[in-house]
Design brief:
The structure holds two protein chains of two kinds. By secondary structure, chain A is α+β, with helices and mostly antiparallel strands. Helices cover about 40% and strands about 15% of the residues of chain A. Classes of the chains: A alpha+beta, B alpha/beta. Chains A and B meet through helix 1, helix 3, helix 4 and helix 6 of A and helix 4 and helix 10 of B.
Chain lengths: ~230, ~550
């Protein structure tokens, strides 16, 4: 039996709990056990409890993570001596305790018209990448870690190139492809400083840089070629 | 006139119904506790069945039909299964066109693999994350209709009640916003329930926490008939983790994984010995009972415990890491075990509810203008579901209902005033009063007690005495005053769970035979008399059970 201090920071302030027991558990299980032991309800989002649904992203010891895939022993004993700090994501509206409202992120993707106008093109060579991009949980960890994303301006963060790169590979409607390029320039390319934080924190290990480079190739480099031709 | 549809639940069934209805120019209000990405559908791993017949095995829709009926032990709705298996290839084509990243064979066809209870390669898949890949594609399509204002999403809303008129016709729903606790009424021409399985009566099972069974319990109180509630699937291969029992997909066996235990220090492949033809790929109920037998009757579980080994170590490492990627991740993350090097300790765990809201082959419920689709509805799977038929059933339900909504004419909505909204307001105020009392019992304790009762009495094998004892215990929970920690939903959930639990135990008591997932130690034989659907409903506050014809159609 080991004991740790659990610090939960919410808009209501900071509360400390002592947890005793098996530390080889994810943070979601830790929260559940604290609730039962103290007969309280710390609100947090969770659904699958095994890293498949993206509900439970929160800040754990300063970094955005999925609580269900983050183990207490690794966080509390190796990084901080028997202490773990849990907070809600900071770039979204906090609903209650650790629960945030991520609607803004979904709205941005909807307004970016991230859908296919025509039947999907099928190219075996692209399948592996499309599969990877489709794994995006829309958990918001990449936006939380991004130095450029504030949630309050026109910058949509890494989820945009991730969804757009897949759709660009599947779409055959020329007008839509043109829109996707312009949308990418307006809502991503002009503001991303390439910190790579999104790729570091993605719980699905999606290669966001690959998605970004695909979109750059689609959207930006062609303009450069054109410019070069004109100036020549 | 544009038809107004309300859909409760935004997993694959609800999404499909919404997208298809929107494409037919109907207006959809889509309610869910969270975004679709959070739904249980993303947890479906192994694949989706369709007789594509691309492997030169002479597969056919007919064989898919026969395998489904045989696995369900002949109490499936045969007409529903016929439509399901017929439409399956077209559904795969639709999903493919929507951009689902299915794994493909060298010829560019959607690849298919072996799955339990089927002798032909018939299960289309996308790695071992088929549900997630399909959901991403349909969700992408859904965005289009949201943008065009054909679908309006209501996130964070939970169902409270149906609005029924004097003729018991469904006119709409009363919902509660979980965050603000606002209670509101919404009206529509048709309501479609897609609220998923009844997981929470067993505590935590392999599926999502969102699919708690609350909606089914509430509907039971409003006159809905539930069907085959005793039919609960134990998936043969789940692993014990500190979180919950997690699933190892059947695809692991489909790709060649073998089940063994140790007998005199030697590996004993008991499934291959007992069932030489299909081995570990027998239907799930058979595999689960076999593992039970090894552990409890032969006392040959690994290390004397309730577990046997699922062995993937002989498979090509690339197969495990690409076609079974999710299995690899789960084992590494939650067992600290590399399945390419060590066998996985497994034992059966509760996974799926074949029973639920009684629907006919058109997905109609016994209440006019109310449909149910996906895992919450019962018709396709009978006494045991085939792996790969749940994704198919979920999508097919949405597909079939959208087609009908287009056809069925709807009467003008009357401007009646309905009492139910006031009733829900009052219930909420009563709860507030009750929470002021000291010495209320914690809702966590009651939840745990219900789960204990269910796990004890509704295991792989059941007996009359245990079931009766379980029912008595559930009765005694009803009078307890509950502290739900300031959360109204947690409070009303308990009442619903108790009712669902009772309906399951009562149905299990009434079916005095053993069939598929329902095994009675006191009635070990299958009995022709029970080639029927178990139907349970409230009749003057008492649960009433009848056995009805499996193909019976609703009267509207």
């Amino acid at each position: 039996m080991e004991s740790i201090t659990v610090i939960i920071k919410t808009s209501k302030g900071m509360k400390e709990y002592t947890y005793e027991g098996n530390l080889n558990i994810p943070v979601t299980t830790l929260l559940e056990r604290i609730n039962v032991k103290h007969d309280i309800k710390i609100h947090y989002s969770s659904s699958c409890l095994q890293g498949l649904c993206g509900s439970c992203s929160m800040i754990i010891n300063g970094l955005p993570k999925l609580a269900c895939k983050t183990f207490v022993n690794e966080e509390a004993t190796t990084k901080k001596m028997h202490k773990i700090t849990i907070e809600p994501l900071s770039k979204f509206h906090v609903v209650k305790d650790l629960v945030v409202d991520r609607t803004s992120m979904f709205e941005n993707i909807k307004n970016s018209r991230q859908w296919l106008e025509e039947e999907s093109r099928i190219n075996q060579d692209n399948l592996e990448f499309e599969y990877e991009a489709s794994q995006c949980l829309m958990c918001g960890c990449c936006l939380e870690a991004c130095p450029n994303y504030t949630g309050e301006d026109n910058y949509y963060g890494a989820i945009l190139p991730v969804t757009s790169s897949k759709i660009s590979k599947q779409e055959s409607d020329m007008d839509k492809l043109k829109f996707l390029k312009e949308n990418y320039s307006n809502h991503f390319y002009n503001d991303c400083v390439k910190s790579l934080a999104c790729e570091n924190v993605c719980p699905m290990n999606i290669q966001t840089q690959r998605a970004i480079s695909i979109m750059n190739r689609h959207s930006i480099w062609k303009f450069h070629k054109l410019l070069k031709k004109i100036t020549e | 006139m544009v038809k107004e549809i309300i859909v409760i639940g935004a997993g694959l069934a609800g999404l499909t119904c919404s997208v298809k209805s929107a494409s037919k120019n109907m207006h959809v209000k889509l309610f869910s506790p969270a975004h679709s990405e959070r739904s249980q559908s993303v947890m479906a791993m192994g694949g989706i069945n369709a007789a594509l017949n691309t492997k030169g095995e002479d597969d056919s829709v007919n064989e898919h039909y026969t395998d489904t009926i045989n696995a369900g032990q002949h109490i499936n709705n045969h007409n529903a299964v016929e439509k399901l298996t017929n439409d399956a290839p077209e559904i795969i084509d639709w999903l493919s066109k929507l951009g689902t990243s299915f794994t493909r064979d060298d010829d560019g066809n959607v690849d298919v693999r072996y799955f339990g209870g089927q002798k032909k390669m018939r299960t289309a898949y996308a790695g071992a994350r088929t549900g997630k890949q399909i959901l991403t594609a349909i969700n992408t399509e859904c965005r289009k209709w949201e943008y065009k204002d054909k679908i309006k999403r209501y996130i964070g809303w939970r169902f409270l009640s149906l609005i029924l008129d004097d003729n018991k016709v469904c006119r709409g729903v009363v919902m509660i916003n979980e965050n603000t606790e606002e209670i509101r009424d919404f009206y529509a021409d048709f309501v479609v329930i897609a609220s998923g399985g009844m997981n929470k009566v067993f505590g935590k099972i392999s599926g999502s926490l969102h699919n708690d069974g609350f909606v089914s319990g509430k509907l039971l109180h409003q006159g809905i008939e539930l069907a085959n509630m005793e039919m609960i699937q134990y998936h043969p291969t789940t692993i014990e983790t500190p979180v919950k029992r997690m699933l190892i997909t059947e695809a692991a066996r489909g790709e060649g994984g073998r089940l063994y235990t140790l007998r005199n220090g030697e590996k004993w492949y008991f499934m291959e010995e007992w069932y030489p033809e299909q081995g570990a790929l027998m239907p799930r109920d058979v595999v689960s009972r076999s593992i039970y037998r090894v552990c409890h009757e032969d006392n040959m579980g690994i290390d004397g415990e309730n577990k046997v080994y699922l062995d993937l170590t002989h498979l090509d490492e690339k197969t495990v890491k690409t076609k079974l990627d999710e299995v690899y991740d789960v084992c590494m993350n939650y067992l600290n075990l590399d399945p390419t090097r060590e066998p996985i300790p497994v034992y059966p765990g509760v996974h799926y509810f074949m029973g639920g809201i009684r629907t006919d082959d058109a997905h109609k419920t016994n209440i006019r203008n109310l449909f149910a689709i996906g895992e919450c509805s019962s018709q396709y799977h009978g006494a045991n579901r085939l792996g790969g038929n749940s994704l198919l059933g979920a999508i097919h339900g949405g597909w079939v209902v959208a087609d009908q909504l287009e056809e069925i004419s709807c009467e003008n909505n009357s401007s009646e005033e309905y009492e139910i909204l006031n009733y829900e307001y009052e219930a909420y105020e009563n709860w507030k009063e009750l929470q002021k009392e000291a010495n209320n019992i914690s809702s966590y304790e009651i939840e745990e007690e219900i789960a204990n009762i269910m796990n004890r009495t509704m295991g792989i094998y059941r007996t009359e005495s245990e079931l009766k004892e379980g029912l008595n215990k559930l009765d005694s929970l009803e009078t307890i005053h509950v502290n739900s920690h300031g959360c109204y939903y947690d409070y009303i959930l308990l009442k619903s769970l108790t009712d669902i639990a009772k309906a399951m135990l009562s149905s299990a008591l009434a079916r005095k035979e053993s069939r598929g997932a329902h095994q009675r130690l006191d009635y070990p034989e299958t009995n022709e008399e029970y080639l029927k659907t178990t139907v349970i409903s409230f009749d003057n506050d008492e649960l009433k059970i009848t056995f009805n014809d499996t193909e019976e159609r609703m009267s509207w």
